[in-house]
Amino acid sequence: MYEPGTPDAPQSTQQQLVSALSLLEAIASSTDDLIAAEDGDFRYLYFNDAYRREFLRLWGQEIQVGTSMVQALSAWPEEQRKAMDIWSRALRGEAYAVTMEFGPSELGMQLYELRFNPIHDNAGRQIGAAHILRNVTERVRMQRALYEGEQLLRRVLDNLFAFVGLLTPDGTLVKANQTPLTAAGIRADDVIGRKFWECHWWAHSEDEQARLRAAILSANSGEVVRYDALVQMSGNSRMWIDFQIAPLRDDAGHIVYLVPSATDITARREAQAALLEADARKNEFLATLSHELRNPLAPLRNGLALLASGRDDPAAKIKTIGMMQRQVTQLVHLIDDLLDISRITSGKLALRRERLNVIEAICNAAEMTQPQLSTRKLALRLPNDPVHVTGDTQRLTQVFGNLLHNAAKFTAPNGHIHVECVVTGTDVIVTLRDDGVGIPPEKLDDVFEIFEQLDHSRDTARGGLGIGLALVQRLVALHGGSVSAHSEGPGTGSEFTVRLPLA
Predict the structure, then answer these.
(1) Domains (ranges, CATH) in the chain?
(2) Angle at CA 275, nearest 5°, toward 271 and 280?
(3) Do 369 and 401 touch, CB atoms closer than 8 A?
(4) For residues 496 and 434, what is the distance between their CA atoms, to the nearest angstrom?
């Protein structure tokens, strides 16, 4: 019998146990984690309220201490087997963590993170196992959606025909889409982690590197910088880009990254250059046209003044009239060429097709250009028999006339011009060679361009609008043929070859 005031040992132990259980219940009830314990027969020894609610929500059954988990899950054999397998490991003394799906159906599946530990009594004997689990379904779904979204964005960026990247404020490249890497023939490892201006795209030019560094400094101060840049691509080629670099701020407004982006504008720059060149050639053509039109007008005005003076000098009148006729012929030739090139360009020039002898067209052209050829030595080597083609006699005469006129213009007095005509296979080939000034190699591809002049000295003796050879090429093409130019260079003469299909 215990005396008053003497500690009641059994009662004290019971109170301690109640106190401990109350503390455990308070802790277990205050967490959203699901806590449960089972004995060796899979009967519940303990579970907190969060576990009970989750079990009811998932399986539609209420559980109590002593309820058999095996019996509670009997309607779902596969899920029952999964639960028994993972509990068995803990009941055999293993402490471990696992992530698994459980649910009564495919649509109802939930993902859980589980941690198991064996339970021992004071004597060290295992009396069951406990686990703490957490439903991570929504978190994982959000992570998966975020990952899939990032992957989708990455695929979109990699398939953009543009450059998009990410820089730290000090200019270090941390991200780049695939397009500029492929176009430059490099890998991400070659540039990621390097200063942007040290990367392959800018390595060709110190000036471009300096502009980029200045742009990064400006972007760090909050400015959006945009300019055209020339970058290096695969095979040491160059590409013009519309380049922009902009600051990227966090929610507090601080600049945390810089975003460089660019699009290929090489075609646009080339088109702009072509337009500028065309404009320059147009202005040059107008100046040349004014010069060419003015040249005949001065002698025509002088001739009219001489005829109007009434001087009785028949020889002077005949000479003056002859001079005026030549100048008018030159004016008519210039205007006809302009009209013809305009008609061809607009598709309004029609050929009067007939079966014709190309030899006659060559001879007519030689006769027509006799005034220009009078101080040159012309040699014709033509077949004795007719060579027939289908075409327009007047236009083919114009073709050979323009070529002869061009040869005379660029061949010095007493120079030589040779015309040869041969038949080969199904074609007739007419070759005009001279020993004149020749053509620079870089000009061979341009001589048939409209308004292109072989000589830019504005020498009046070598005047012209730069449309004669362009007209030749277009007229020959209308006849189903081709024309080409060849020269070994300045001072070596020129050779033009016209190929026409036989009738």
Answers:
(1) 17-135 (3.30.450.20), 154-264 (3.30.450.20), 271-341 (1.10.287.130), 354-501 (3.30.565.10)
(2) 150
(3) yes
(4) 9
Tens of pLDDT, residues 56-78 = 999 999 999 999 999 999 999 99
Residue 29 makes CB contacts below 8 A (sequence gap 6+) with 48, 49, 50
DSSP 289: H
Q: CA-CA-CA-CA torsion for 309, 314, 320, 321, nearest 10 degrees?
A: 110
HSE-CB for 77 with a 13 A CA cutoff = 0
Contacts 24+ apart (CB under 8 A), 460-465: 460/291, 460/295, 461/409, 462/409, 462/410, 463/288, 463/291, 463/292, 463/295, 464/288, 464/292, 464/409, 465/285, 465/288, 465/289, 465/292, 465/334, 465/337, 465/338
pLDDT tens digits, residue range 352-411?
Answer: 899 999 999 999 999 988 888 889 999 999 999 999 999 999 889 989 998 998 899 899
- Of the candidates 407, 377, 412, the one whose C-alpha atom is nearest the C-alpha of residue 497 is 407
Give the distance, in angstroms, between the CA of residue 346 and the centroid of all CA atoms in the same chain: 33
Q: Which two tokens stand for residue 153?
A: 């964005």
Characterize the bridge pairing of strands 494-501 and 482-486.
antiparallel
Alpha helical stretches, state H, 420-496: 468-478
Q: 317 near 305, Cβ under 8 Å?
A: no
Q: Are strands 388-391 and 173-176 parallel, antiparallel or unpaired?
A: unpaired
C-alpha span between 52 and 64 (Å, rounded): 9
* Tens digit of each residue's pLDDT (9 = 90 or more) over 407-457: 998 999 999 999 999 999 899 999 999 999 999 988 888 888 876 654 444
Which helix H or strand E contains 434, and what residues bound it? strand 427-434
CB atoms within 10 A of CB 428: 22
Q: How remote is the C-alpha of 460 from its chain's centroid?
A: 47
> Which tokens in the block code for residue 154?
């990455």
Cα separation, 13 vs 22, whole angstroms: 14
